[in-house]
């Protein structure tokens, strides 16, 4: 609150004074500066639950409590990741470079009064040289396959 005293005077020197109180109400401002902890890049075939990175944001309102979440929509890889309310991003499944090398995600950060902002981010998946797997003749590290002398190919 702000108290002021106003005096008004006319050209005849007659005047009046009065006290006024100005009340300033605090408005809730939305969070700002939603940022990633760095470039999100990880190798393919890592276990579900692998840490990708984290998000942070600020709020102009002192003491505001911020909460992070992924936005579920058809344009992003929402189901491939988990995001803690504190902003920690982890994988929800094993990611495969050959299937999808780049995942778009949308992050929402909101305060306790539901003021919020969203941001779009990308998680890059890097290729890993995968060891060939023997699928015939018993599989495993070695396999046995018998073929006739005149047979030309193996399928």
Q: Could you characterize the architecture of this molecule?
A:
It is a single chain. The protein has strands spanning about 1-10, 15-20, 30-35, 40-45, 50-60, 65-70, 80-85, 90, 100-110, 115-125. With about 160 residues, the chain is mostly beta strands. Strands 3-5-8-7 form a four-stranded antiparallel β-sheet, with no helix packed on it. A four-stranded mixed β-sheet has the order 4-10-9-6, with no helix packed on it. The N and C termini lie far apart (about 85 Å). The model has no long low-confidence stretch (mean pLDDT about 90).
Strand order of the largest sheet: 3-5-8-7
Shape: rod-shaped
Distance between the termini: 85 Å
Number of helices: 0
Number of strands: 10
Unreliable spans: none
Rounded radius of gyration (Å): 31 Å
Beta-strand share of residues:
35-45%
H and E order = EEEEEEEEEE
- Report the structural category: mainly beta
Main β-sheet, in a few words?
4 strands, antiparallel
Give the helix level as a range of percent.
under 10%
Mean residue pLDDT: 90
Fill in the keyword field for this structure.
155 residues, mainly beta, four-stranded antiparallel β-sheet, four-stranded mixed β-sheet, 0% helix
Write the layout of secondary structure elements.
Blueprint (H helix, E strand, L loop, with lengths): L1 E8 L5 E8 L9 E5 L3 E4 L7 E8 L8 E4 L10 E3 L4 E4 L10 E9 L5 E11 L29
Parallel strand pairs: 4-10
Antiparallel strand pairs: 1-2, 3-5, 5-8, 6-9, 7-8, 9-10
